[in-house]
Amino acid sequence: MQTEILGNTENISKQGNVLIIKTKEAEARIWIYSPTIIRVNISRQHNADTSFAVIQNPAKKLDYTETAKQLLINTGALKLEINKSPLRFNFYTADGKELSQDDARFGVNWQGTRVINYRKLYKDEKFIGLGEKTGDLNRRGSSYVNWNSDVPDHNPKSDPLYETFPFFVGLHGGLTYGLFFDNTHKSYFDFGASTDDTMSWFGADAGDMNYYFFGAQSVSQIIEDYTWLTGRMEMPPLWSLGYQQCRWSYMSAAEILDIAENFRKEKIPADVMYCDIDYMDQYKIFTWNKETFPNPKSFIDKLKAMNFHLVTIVDPGIKVEPGYKQYDEGVSKNYFATYPDGEKYIGSVWPGRCHFPDFFRYDVRKWWGASFTALTEPGVEGFWNDMNEPAAWGQDIPWMVKFGNYYMPEVRNAYGMQMAKATYEGTKKLLGNKRPFVLTRAAYSGTQRYSAVWTGDNSAYDAHMLLGQRLVNSLGITGMSLVGVDIGGFSGDPTPELMVRWNSLGVYTPMFRNHAMQGTKYREPWRWGKENETIIKKDIEQRYKLLPYIYSAYYQSHQTGIPVSRTLAINYTNDENVFDVKYQNQFLFGDALLVAPVESTRFAEDVYLPAGEWYRLSTGEKFEGGKAVNVPAPLTDLPVFVKAGTIVPMQDVIQSTNEKGDGILELNVWYGKNANSYVYYEDDGSSYDYQKGTYYKRSVHFDPLKNTISLLAVEGSFASKYTQIKLVLHGFDQKIKTVKVNGKAMKLAEGTGTFNNDNKTIKIEF
Ligand code: MIG
Questions:
Q1: Model's pTM, two decimal places?
Q2: Phi/psi at 698 (nearest 5 deg)?
Q3: Which atom of ligand 1 lies at the shortest distance from residue 457's CA?
């Protein structure tokens, strides 16, 4: 294997908006995408420039200046200094602070087809990101591989897992930068793990050194930029944010109806039931088992009558069986992956011998999407994509298997994403104006445009619960906001204490799904004794009370890419304590709530509260931040804190998101010394009408100096489902003097008032 270095600049040219620098070995192309985003692509051969992740085009203009030794690009917000010989790329802030540089010795080079970028490592540099990666929040000193894999029984150190997000954020000297290595080959990241702290490096088995450099000076702005580049989620169906009950598998329609009925009987709120693989006829995708699910439509109608939505699983593997519709169609149209000689690839999964659709092709995606009629016609609205790493009983698919023009290793990491895309686009079409819910196990950067993800087959022990939270938080950095873990742990049986604790954390998990493996004990809320059921029920009720707040947080993700679950490293980047392994699992859930996961065997916990003031949500007790506090953490009360000055909209308990409730939107204002604004958002929760302005959006301002709370005019044409707004003030020792609604001042004598929500008359009720 030969090592080849990038070498010296031999030729510089500009073609339109791209700067091209040629060396003996390769060609570097540079584009500006926005003032804070510059793309560098270094290539030895001219590959077709396709990206599964990026949805933006580069800016039309690129200016640079040249000196004897350098080229300089200055966007106004970011500077790229290019040393000509050897060719090196060094990034600076607009005011000249060094953000990130090539390692001066090695820069970019190749070994055979492998391409590697060695980068300067700063003494105090920390790294966060890479999505679904085990290990600590700060990835300094760790290394990772991206190769989407089916890893049942993984442990809190296993790598790789199911998903690939080659995007990280570097932090040093109070500065921030981001780097997205858009290459779907097997890729590698080493954050000083193996280099005696002399450098970091990343690379891939083949393909281009193709990266986007982000220079914004805050983690949240970098996430906004990354999700601008790779897309943001649409508003999820509201029902998918309720409690979801899953199991591998409920074996019949009757069993699922039974479970659903029991939720209603026990008055435990829930919205979603799942069919895992056993609903199918011999695991053939897009079929129903005629004995156990004899009449899918009447089964789903019954679920709907109980206000439940159904999600069904689909795997990519299509059973080799002449006479089976999807097999026949796929064969006749050549929709399946092949060996180079054209022979169809066969791998074994649940149905036995299977062919694998080539989701990289538009016509195949269209066909796959249209096949969902078998599920949508009887009324399924959620589509769970499993085994799409793709998995063939844990084996690597041979490297010479082809998806169209690609060999498997080139695009493996994007296969699951393309399946999710096909599923999303197909079911969206079939459901008309209704939002489908898509959940995928394998993913690549950009998957947030199509689907939610979950973290795969976790296990029923405490360290896995904590790991799950870090995975959720890390996925948030890489644009995935709608994320879940199997609450309770997929393999093994949780102790009742772990079940209760994990469920309480599930309340603050973006997707709240209880799921368990075949052969494990049943997991539903009533399987743990009356006392535990009461706790579990109370926690699920809390989820439903918080839905107006959670839904508004999703609106934020939809608008800005900022995730619902946020590692503290996003908002408190320069606070060393948030990276302490003791506190690294803590996160903000939306703007206002700080949640501290606690193991099921601990009943008091040290919680780190960042600078500012905080209130415990359950008791109202006030804490001064900037230090750790030891707080009681009984199984009935997970430590959750509210940031002073924030606004948390809540509602009364409903049994499902289909219910209207009592019509009161409770605006909780938690007193703080600083003024604060909050955007409340609501729409019909199920259609795309919000994209045409049919939403209800309202800014709420709290100003402690003027002692006012203002509800600004409503934006959008949606009539809120709430008929009244009730203001609930917490921690106010001085009385709020004025509440302004649509600009009109209201006098308020005591702490609580209620306003009609019809935009015209304002009534205060005490
Ligand atoms: O080979 O469909 O991660 O959630 O229950 C196992 C059965 C296949 C793996 C998924 C899991 C699901 C299970 N699947």
A1: 0.97
A2: -145, 125
A3: 3
